[in-house]
Amino acid sequence: NRGHIAHADAMTSNGAHGIASSEAVPKKKKVVLLGTGWAGMSFLKNLNNPSYEVEVLSPRNFFVFTPLLPSVTCGKVEARSIVEPIRNIIRKKNVDISFSEAECVKIDPQNKKIYCRATVNSKLKGEEEFAVDYDYLIIAVGAQVNTFNTPGVEQNCHFLKEVEDAQKIRKNVIESFEKASLPNLSDEEREKILHFVIVGGGPTGVEFAAELYDFVNEDVVKLYPKVREFVKITLLEATDHILNMFDKRITNFAEGKFGRDGIDVKLGSMVTKINDNEISTKARGNGNTTNTPYGMVLWSTGIGPRPLIKEFMKQIGQGNRRALATDEWLRVEGFDTIYALGDCATINQRKVMEDISEIFKKADKDESGTLTVKEFQEIIDDICERYPQVELYLKSKQVRNIVDLLKEAKGDAAKESIELNIEEFKSALSQVDSQMKNLPATAQVANQQGAYLANCFNRMEECEKNPEGPARFRGTGRHRFHPFRYRHLGQFAPLGGEQTAAQLPGDWVSIGHSSQWLWYSVYASKQVSWRTRALVVSDWVRRFIFGRDTSG
Ligand code: FAD
Ligand code: MG
Ligand code: MG
Ligand code: MG
Ligand code: MG
After folding, report:
1. Number of domains into which the chain is organized
2. Can you tell me which atom of ligand 1 is nearest the CA of 440?
3. Residue 535 lies in a domain
4. Is there a single domain that holds both residue 275 and residue 398?
5. Which region holds residue 341: left if phi is over 0, alpha if psi is between -120 and 50, else beta?
6. Which listed ligand is nearest to 58 at the C-alpha?
7. How much distance in Å is there from the Cα of 195 to the middle of ligand 3?
8. pLDDT per residue as tens digits for the range 438-467
């Protein structure tokens, strides 16, 4: 058993498992995982190295398939159908995994310890606070809604982040229609109650607007015909366009469709405060302030760090960042045994220019002070792996390979052989780092990072013996694995009326009913279990046949 050999050094004299025989069982290394969202779930699903003992801590004992949360808000899909109990996932594993329903409140990296608070019903008496030791800590706690400290948001707005949020929204939407249908109201009052405001024109806000519009159009017209005319949906976006992160064609289509549907999209509109009656906005152009009565507001303007992460960043000198910085191997900067992934973290990609002298020195094998093409070619693969921005830069410049780039830098002087000195080398690569950008905070990224990290743990012993990372830069032996690489598989924006915009790799854009079917099939296939897949698909079918359930 390789794991046991590799961990022989971890054997303890205190015989942790009470086995007294001379053939002591080596103590398993303990991995503590915080969070059961996309990143955490993906790590657990992909981990299969039995030489670890894993303890999972999260305030919720289930995983949520967040891309379908907007569908829950108006009853297209049931909340139950998009959650999977975490114990269902871990009981199927050959790895020793335990779960505690608790949230981490403090991390103590010096003593390799975390402090937790149980979140189970406090009426069930028990130890509420406890500490847990770890050998490896994996932080996957996600992020929280960012209110930008706008007054009144906490008190008066709905968020759409957790299952309970979606359930609350659904109840509130239905109750708005019931309330507006009461006999003793003026038209003005009905208008106010049925004014739905969405703040933030990102994917979540847009999808909710579309869901709400469909609900009104398909079900409300039949169930609440008298109040249909009072319904108004307003989408407020601070920048010039909704769905900024998508291709222009998608943005245009979405704005056009919403316009035709009568959804009032107000661009360049900043929310300044919200009281229990009115929402105040400032127009970006002329700075005019408008106060508008509303019935319900959904706030979805982006995410910020959780208190635990803010505190931890302060502790380790990462100050005022928006997310925990890790290296390309997902290790928190400066800590070899703490990993962070998903929405709570960002990868601090090394800049080529920071390392340029070192790269040059490593490439210049004969120490001649100049680089030949041959010397350079030997190190290209390692450079491209260590610094993915190089490939992006070549693509953006439409240069075939990096040698062409060097030739270009050398100009006419380069005919057959080129030799570059350090200054020429620097100037050839000086623009490369401009291609670096942070990965988006998406399930797709979190999911791939979880799988990547599990795979590192699966092969830990093997790679300790035979490192496989970019050879030239392995340096201190930290880089036993290939760095994390994100593969973008495309992105959907459901726009309502059975129409979806899809942006697939290679700038392939498709909008309409056909992409809606692609959306259905992709989201059915991405479900974490056959159980949720069956539930989600039957919810879709049910809605097609019977419409939405509006009891609430
Ligand atoms: P999360 O999935 O948020 O998980 C965090 C986990 O940590 C949770 O289990 C939480 O309970 C737990 N936790 C919190 N605090 C603590 C603590 N102190 N200690 C221990 N555990 C803690 N992405 C896409 O790619 N495609 C989409 O279509 C899409 N649609 C979305 C729709 C909505 C409505 C939302 C809200 C998000 C959507 N996303 C989508 C984004 C995606 O959900 C996130 O990027 C993803 O969930 C990030 O994964 P994570 O594991 O980092 O965080
Ligand atoms: Mg997680
Ligand atoms: Mg999640
Ligand atoms: Mg991230
Ligand atoms: Mg040389």
Report:
1. 4
2. 45
3. yes
4. no
5. beta
6. 1
7. 30
8. 899 999 999 999 999 999 999 988 888 887
